[in-house]
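Hey L., structure's done. Input below.
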Amino acid sequence: MVRIAVLHDQYLSQGVNGVSGEDNLVNLEIELLKDRGHEIIDLRGIETGLRRKLLQGSIHVFGYGTGLPSMRKLPEVIHIHNLNQKTGYSWLARSPAPLVQSLHNLRAFCSVSIGWRSNHECYECLKNPGSILRHSCGGLYGVLGGLRHILFQRNRPQLHYPSRIIASSEMMKNLFSQVFPRARIDTIHNPGIRVADNGTGLSPKGWLFAGRLVPEKGILNLIKYWPETENLDIAGSGLLHDQVRALTKDRPNIRLIGVFPNEDRTIYHRYEGLFFTSTWMEGSPLVVADAIANGLPVIAFGNSAVKEQISLTGGGVLMETELSRDSILDGIATVRARAVELRSWGIHASQKQLSTTRWISQIENSLRLATKNP
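Output:
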C-alpha cells in the first residue's frame, strides 16, 4: 500500500454538468486506487466566483495560486493533474514528496494548451517560449500566458520538478522527450468504459461527431463536406456553436443534439460509427476510447494520437487522405463492409489494451517508480 496524494484543480464549468474528461479520469483514478488498498489524500479543489478569477489570473500571469493544500499526513508520492484553475505552480520546488505529473494537454509549454495555430500544428514554444509573442496566439490571454512562461516559469516547473511524467500517447511522449528525459516518461493510454446495450434491439443508424465545437476539432470541414445521403448527429458545445447551428439549419440530415451525454455511454450503441476529425495532437481522447470499448467503430482523420488507440484495438479506420466528401464516403463504406469485425475487435481489444485494470496498474507502477527514484 502506498500513501498517494492526488492533486487536481477541477475545471468546474467545462464539460457536461461541470465535469470534464480530465475530471472524470481523476475521479476514476481515486476510486480504483482506493479499491486496490492505497491510502488516498484527495487534494482536489474548486473555487467559484471572483476568487476563482483572481486565482486564475495570478496563475496565468505569475504561476502563483493557493499553494499546496494542507495535509494531516505527508504522502509518499503526489500525482498531479491540472494546476491551472487554483493551485498554481509555485509550491512544486518545495514539495514534501516526489511528484508525478500527468500531461493531458500541452499547457506545460503552450499558452493555448493545444499546440495549434493558424490551422496547423505548432510546437515552437516547447523550445522558445517567446514565440507566442511573435505569433500573438490566443489574443491577450495567450500573451499573458507567454509572459508567464518567459518571466516567471523559464524552468518549466511542470517539467522541471516531477520525478516522472505520464503522457497519454507515444506522440505526446515523443514531443516532451525533447525537454524531459525520455526514460522517465511513461505512456499510459486512457481507458475505455463499456456499458451493456440499452436493450432496445434497434439497429445502429447514422453517424456521430462528439466533442468541443472549436476550430481545431475540424467540425466546420466535416459539415462542409458531409454528404447529403448520410445522417450526422453532432454532440458538443463550444465557441463555434452558433456557427455550427447556422451551417446546419437548412441541412435536415445533420442534427445538432446538444452537449455530449457524459454519463450515458449507451449513446454509442445508437450509431454506425464515430467521426473524429481533430487537427491537433490530442493525447488519448476518452470519447474515442469509450466508443471503441462499446463497439462503435471510429473513422479518424488528421494527425492526432487517435491513430494509436485504433492501432492498439483495431476498433476503427485510419483515413490517410484529406477530409473531403469522397474520403468521408470511403470511410463510411469501409466501416459498413467491416462493421462486425471492427465492432468485435474493438470490444475485445479494449478490454485488454484499454481496460481500466491495465490503466490503473500502469499508474500504480509510475507512482511506485517515483517513490524509489525521487
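Residues 207-350 form a domain with the Rossmann fold fold (CATH 3.40.50.2000). The longest strand covers residues 3-7.

-- N.
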